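Notes taken during the Thursday session

The instructor put the following on the board and asked us to keep it in front of us for the whole hour. The protein is Cytochrome P460 domain-containing protein. We were told not to look anything up and to reason only from what is written here. First, the residues (171 in total):
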Amino acid sequence: MPSDPRPRRSIALPLAGAALSALLVAAAPVATTPASPIYGVTLPDGYRDWRLIAPALEDAPLDELRAVLGNDLAVKAYRDGTLPFPDGAVLVKLAWKRTRSPAFEPATVPGRATTVQVMVKDSRRYPESGGWGFGRFIDGAPVDEAQHQTCFACHEARVRNHDFVFTRYAR
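Then, after some discussion, the predicted structure tokens were revealed:
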């Protein structure tokens, strides 16, 4: 049988390259929420499943129910009484408007969600703000820069002696 004089082309290499590119794109991290201005903090994955640090009730003018959740490092620091909090500790505050329960009038229940606030401890990344980065989100989007400028100032003025953290552990 005579040999074919035409050069042979392989489609395996282009296909392998395309498959590798698709795999790399699929494996690349994708930001699920936009980052807060100033600090670059995002909503942490899975935060709704974190442990409760403490509930809170905010009277007028906000009139909110709040729950502060913590990742494992934050919970351990609270349980052990560790101050300052270790780098990697993350606190998330969920807030809702207070609403009277339709089923039981004396009870207050969560109404409309108002904000999700995040504090991330990273002393190298946030040395100017006591080692904490801040994020405030409404409907998953960060609030404007002016509102973020008030975060550290409020914490610094009121809870400097507790590593800039308001919430105490509810035992």
